[in-house]
Batch of 3 targets.
Target 1
Amino acid sequence: MNLSQEDWVAQLQADENAVILDVRTEDEFNDGYIENALNIDINKGQAFIYEIEELDKNKNYYVYCRSGARSAKACQIMNELGIENAYNLLGGILDWEGETVHP
């Protein structure tokens, strides 16, 4: 499900069962990420699938990437793997107006 930044943030803040998932590469992640985000690189193919399969299917996942394209694909894959609640951040981190963490 695609959500505008406003809806994504509002839903995330109200969700006690939320996990933020960054599906960018490790290098992109290290350039700055949304606080508390878990990084699983969608470009790793089967390794991405394995890591997604290990996630708690009862949680709600708030997924983002650089622009919203990879995270949309990630949400689709997550749905296919039995994770019903995966929310894509439209515009990705490029359009993100909130705080980011720089390791």
Note: The CA atoms of residues 5 and 97 lie 8 Å apart.
Target 2
Amino acid sequence: MSALIDGDEISEEAELVWLEDISILDYVRQSLDRLPNRRGRPAYHRDGRMVGYAVLHARARPSRTSGTFRRRVFWLLPHDRDTAPQGLYATGAPAEAVDPATLTPRTKGQKTERSEGGPLSTPPHPDVVPPDDSVPR
């Protein structure tokens, strides 16, 4: 779960690789997986689909006991909001879900109003001037 990811566990990340356009996703699930290498697309053994993954620096050291590397994998399940907008997560989000717009290497990411199913914050159109509240109506 994202709440259980400690900053020390992702401190060796060099980059995040996205397999899909994350700008259209309200949230992605993230987990730390034990993988045999620092780089490259990891094997995926969950339902649903992998959306992205972390690549580690060349200096990242494997676990002394297992020889594996802990890397973040980002994924979605078939019942997540992107494919089932009126489903289980029409509002709210899974515990391990974060807004992909808040993700960068070495940062955990955050839940936001968007990831929890709230309204998307859209920037105002450049031709629209907000009303001046100082003028009496």
Note: Residues 60 and 81 are 34 Å apart (CA to CA).
Target 3
Amino acid sequence: MSPNVRRFVMPAAPTVHVVVTGLSHGASGALRRFAGWVARGSVGHPLLDGIDYWDDLRDSPSQMETLFAIFANVLELDDEGEPVNEKYAEHRAAVWLYQYCTGSAPDGEPSLESWEVELY
């Protein structure tokens, strides 16, 4: 069990509840890796190959926020707080970045849903 997850039993209740007290090492690592891919210009490889997205993101920091929001919104965690779809979350963020930079979605990609781009 992750050190950031505690299990406890509610008094008079036979079920076990899980309380997450922070990001698991896996979730923290997923965010760190995603930040590294964005910074190195390799996010969404090979979808964004040949697209220099840094100028667009540098001119509009709120778009960087949206990029990270999509990754975080799509990222799913298991009961232990560990990521189960990190590459898919990266891919969906890359789809948005592709559309932002080129003005059109990549061929064959489903449109982003409102919950994917929600800013909390």
Note: The two ends are 28 Å apart (CA to CA).
